Amino acid sequence: MSPPAANPTQSLWLRIGWLIDGLGGPVQHNVAMAVHDGRIAAIGPDTDAGAAGALDLSRVTVLPALMDAHVHLAFSGTVDPQARSAQLNAAPEAVRAAVARHLRDQWQCGVVAVRDGGDRGGEVLHCKRHCPPPVEQAITVFSPGWAWHAFGRYGTMIGRHPQEGQTLADALAPYLPAIDHLKLLQSGINSLARCGPQGGPQFSGTDLRVAIRAAHAAGKPVMVHANGDIAVRMALEAGCDSIEHGYFMGPDNLRRMADQSVTWVPTAIPMAALAKARGLTQQQKDIARRTLDHQLDQIRQARDLGVPIALGTDAGGQGVHHGHAVRQELRLLMTAGLSLSQAIRCATRNAAHLMGLQDRGALAPGHRADFIAVPGPPDRLPEGLATIQSIHLSGRSCEPTCGL
Ligand SMILES: [Zn+2]
Prior knowledge:
It is a single chain. This protein is of the alpha/beta class. The protein has twelve helices and 16 strands. The protein folds into two domains: 90 residues, Urease, subunit C, domain 1 (Roll); 289 residues, Metal-dependent hydrolases (TIM Barrel), CATH 3.20.20.140.
């Protein structure tokens, strides 16, 4: 492949040592990539050894810029109980400063798009609309504002509930125009007292169906937090777009997801963090470890069944740090049995698809030239993502520390 003849100010020619395309294909070696007007024009074997003016990435692994499909930007991953409680009750200004910090953390780890899962004050949505810090211009943020839970059930930390006599659809209707997606909570969270799903579903099938239909009519996708067979099945029957967590959902639900092409965001890293958290009893850590092992087994089944998996970390949870958690989750996906390319696909193409970013998340002609460069061959990944050499947005190169 030869360099493009187009206007050199708009065109970029790269010589790449190793390329991971984000589509799950094998790692390609010695590749040339042409970028024009911020988009990938062509990719092919690097046969033109004398190409002048090419950006030399021949000792580097290039992959699409990363995305995290489940974060809580309002919270840090601190494990200090006092700090966790303080951030739950923080003033809006403090939450907004935290959001800016966490976006910087994501950026430094090569993350360029995040899908938020909600916060009590809806501050992430407010930040997005009213006070974008410099780095947020580089990171695409999708926010539901608040997560919706049933009165008296799990979710007060991150959301709201319908008032007495109000249906779920009635309660959320005024918010639909402003949000990027709807977040519903249909189960509790994992217990550290007993390994297995906790509690019954939060909303009735009718409530879920009507709310999801209203969101879709407004053009908003719906993410549903659901653990356990029944909660996940109800969310799938109601027509949700993604299942978040999905612990203990069981093989029948995995088959349904494959059939309906519903994306799963398994968020394994929070359980891995709890399995080694200080301050927990040995029994609690053992339950977290068994819960994690069960989830990794479900991920392997999902791979075999063809369930679309998008990487999400639940960053902001206890011991789950913005940005860093992405490479930890990549490692867990690989522990479950995904290849490096398959795991990267979860954090790139599949996450982009879930966020509606159709021209991003893959290194293929026509896609936006958003990629990261990591020194050395790919056998150092995903841990090697700790030392990103450069981040490129629409072909433009930035240091991981730029704009901070
Ligand atoms: Zn979450």
